[in-house]
Amino acid sequence: MSAVTADRVRAALADVCDPELPVSVVDLGLIRGIDVDGGAVTVRMTFTSIACPCTEVLKEDVAAAVGALDGVTAALVEEVFEPWSRADLTDEGRLILRALAVV
Amino acid sequence: MSDGGAQRGLVNLLVVLADNKWSLGRHLSEWAVGAPVLETGVATAAIAQGHMGQARVLYPLLEELGSTLGSADERTRRYQVAALDHPFPTWAHVVAALLAVDGALNSLLLSLRGSSHEQLARRVGRMLEEERFQRDFAEGRVHELSAFPPGTAQLQAALDAVLPEMLCWFGPAGEEGVAALAAAGLLDGDGDRWRQRYLDRVGPVLLEIGVDLPARRAGSTWEIDDLPWDRWNPLQRRLASPSPAPGAALPTSSA
User: Fold this and answer.
1) Which residues are registered as beta bridge partners of B215?
2) C-alpha neighbours within 13 Å on the C-beta side of residue A57
3) Could you tell me the sign of the dihedral formed by the alpha carbons of B195, B196, B198, B204, in that order?
4) ipTM of the complex
């Protein structure tokens, strides 16, 4: 069984995309922390808007992606309500959103 | 939280804020396809979604505080102002609510930014980040309406029904529950201070277009007309409705 690490979790989250945009939660800058305690993982995330209609879908997708990792025994998603702005996008995220004329 | 009085006050405050946000969002959503122009309708839909989203993040705090009140859809008793009991009959009523109801909610939210309840303070911080767009939109629509005399008259009529209630909504001076919340560091200020802040916020734009207010400037403060405290319900923080509107769609405040 592979050891669970924050890097492995982050790599898994790079495949979790916003349901409305082809950009991952990592490239959107929504992931604010990953805590690993043995096989228990807590992902702290925020959203682009407090009114984002996709929050529950995203939380479920994040929990499912983390839970599917070898060695993970529990996956928890905590919404932290931290501010979000375009400055939180990664370069790749910004490139995709620019191509889509979103930013 | 060890102070029972503060805890009860916080539960009441949260349910009042959340129910008002929820109902405001719901009634605004009904105008997403009825606004004067397409762009305004789209913006109204986004704002409606915003208010409902804000309610969504407030309701879970009630549960964490041990309250069984749940979301507005799970109750018959609502803790919303009477101005939100029924769908908005005209666009002027929508604009009045955007400015006067939301303005009151946000004036109170400002007092919660530094709350000792960390989870609440964080949520409020995010709400206030998004609030300035809604405020700009509301003020823009006020100016739009005032471009034609009938628009100003319609807005005046809508505001006449809303402003006295929203001025009451901050509560009478020296309210016990508010004092307990302030003593516990859960909020700052009191009803009188919030009323002044509220008038500082909504008063100038309304005076600019010639709307009469139930208050007037007196130096750096506002002198407020007599408010209808005889109809004030301190638990639900609303005025008793004078009469039900015809064709009302939402259940109101019956227990």
Assistant:
1) B224
2) 9
3) positive
4) 0.75
Structure tokens at B52: 């409902």
Locate the domains of chain A by residue range.
6-82
Whether the CB of B176 is below 8 Å from some CB of chain A: the reply is no
pLDDT in tens, A42-94: 999 999 988 888 888 999 999 999 999 999 999 999 999 999 999 999 999 99
B29: which 2 tokens?
Answer: 């959503």
B14-29: average pLDDT: 96
Can you read off the two tokens belonging to residue A1?
């069984």
Give the C-alpha separation, B36 to B91, whole Å. Answer: 8
Out of A49, A80, A82, closest to residue B53 by CB: A49
> Which CATH code of 3.30.300.130, 3.40.50.300, 3.40.50.10810, 3.40.120.10 fits the domain covering A6-82?
3.30.300.130
> What's the token pair of residue B1?
């939280």
pLDDT at B195: 97
Expressed in angstroms, the distance from the first to the final Cα of chain A is: 42
Token digits of residue A58: 């995203």
- Pick the residue of B126, B133, B134 with the most A CBs within 10 A to test the interface with A by mutation: B126
CB of B21 within 8 Å of a chain A CB? The answer is: no
**A–B interface: beta-carbon pairs under 8 A:** 35
Place of tokens 């719901």: B26
Question: CA B206, CA B199: separation in Å to the nearest integer?
Answer: 10
Are the beta carbons of B127 and A50 separated by less than 8 Å?
yes
List the single residue in B49, B54, B127 with the smallest CB-CB distance to A53.
B49
Lookup: tokens for B79: 């803790």
Cα–Cα dist B24/B85, whole Å: 9
